[in-house]
Amino acid sequence: MVVKRLFSPLLKLALALAVIFSFDLVRSDQEPVLAVDQDIHSITVDTVLQEDGSAKITEYWDITTHEGTEIYKPLVLTDAQELSDYQVSMDGQPFSPIKNWDVDASFNAKAYQFGRNENSELNWGISDYGRHTYQVSYRISNFVMQTATNQMIYWRFISDNLADSPENIRMTIASEKEDFNLEYNRVWGFGFRGQVHIEDGKVVAESKESLPSSGSGILLVRIPQGTYPTQWTSDKAFDDYVKEAFEGSDYNWEDYDSNAAVEDITSMPGEGMPKLIKWGLVGLGGLGVVGILAGEFQYIKRKRALKKWYPSIKQRSQELDGQYYRDLPADNIYSDYFILDQLAIDDLDSNYLTGTILYLVKEGGLKLGGETGLFKDNHYFMVNSAYQAPDLDPIKDWWRIFNEVADDKGQFSEKDFKKYCQSRTDRLKGVSISYRSYSKNYLLGGDFIQSQTYAKAKEDQDQRYLADSQVTYPFTDKGHQLRDNWVKFYNYLKDFSLLNERGAQEVALWDRLLIYAAVLGIAAEVAKEFANLYPDFEKQSVYSGTGDINFWQYYYIANVMNRSYTQSIAPEMTSAMSSGGGGFSSFGGGGGAFGGGGGGGAR
Questions:
Q1: Is there a smaller number of Cβ atoms within 10 Å at the N or the C end of the chain?
Q2: What is the predicted pLDDT for the residue at 373?
Q3: SS3 for 275?
Q4: Total-model pTM
């Protein structure tokens, strides 16, 4: 192949450079010479402010290592701050402190030990290869800064340029003095894509996807002046720090209102909705040429494994070209949401709303009424109050919503639904969460997915293991077969010549096929082909009605409703978020944060 011929000399050059620079010890002030094989599954940082203005911080590093001697975290304190009560444990086993930490010491010398490297890092021995949870706790004095106008926390809790991309990060800030609330506090998040908000009296921030190498975990919290005693002061106003933090961020300085009332600061509720599979580059910054090359090779290796074992529906459809699954791949569309989500189907949540509407129409819960006017259609849904929704959480959730939208006559239009979406984003996001919860429980119970990937020695790590280690819920063999059944079913629906195998007497089955086609995003083209194969399909289908009502009216209104639904659950940086009301975090910005530089992880 041309690509292979081109890549070969580049690979040779890269290896040559690796040899050259390995003797030159190319490194930054805090980065290791070589990247080591590791997987950072998650980092959680819990902070509790004390009444004296200090902070007790506990970190949990869920990490798999296969080489290296230690794990480290950059931590640089100001002159006003001191570190105390520093402790480390692995899976509950306490480590012993070493006064003078030697970065170049052996694996055995560092085992079950911890210390500090030149007061700029927290260091501890890997101690045992494989997957472990390391608990690191410490106390920082004068953690709260007193600015000229307010007090604040502006801290880089998780550094950028980690040696591997964490699949998930989570940060919390609580206080023993008083709860956090929007009446007195404001909060922003930088360096990660996710959410930050105040709930149950504490600040909570969490990513919705893996952290890229350039990402970090930075929180900015406004605190009323004089709340905590502190020796850490600044002549700058709090708003000066906000403006600096906003540079390069998704927050809008023009929307920032430092005097916004509580009622104006309304967080966008709900949870982030991550994909099953998210991965980022291995940390490259500051590693030098050798680290970059090692990181790139590992990145390419992991990417290829992921693409092979967890392809998109378009890729897998091509790989299974000519193979078909003629039966319905599942008893209902909701059980396999996780499978379809992994296949990277566009607008999956919107597809599920369309599928749900078609299902409720087919089962007698909804019916379209109204008529087509000369200049404007006047269609509306009619809710059948006698209908009993099945015991499936996603359907029950939608059924409750449609009943709430409907008026006293049991009718609602797409405009009524739009108004509901604008005022009840929490309910709409709750439906999306119920998709995931229902599907996860079903697939775990049926042994289609597993809750974790168990650590293997490096020599036993095959390509499937590398792929599974990047997936929140790896597929079992049964799961891969179920995924392929869906793809073959997709091929069957797309190969219109095969649809003619179904006779006119199976229109009822075609109606059901449209529900499954809807979640796959191909309902329109399948319905069109049904009509071509059997011109009376639209008249005999359950989606037909009086006058001009047929499948296309249902499909059109479902699309209009989908736009309202998608907008209600989509991330959007509002003025309330820019003013510190919580909501979505910003990947960019966060300049001037305190707490340390880049790097961290195993080395």
A1: N
A2: 52
A3: coil
A4: 0.51
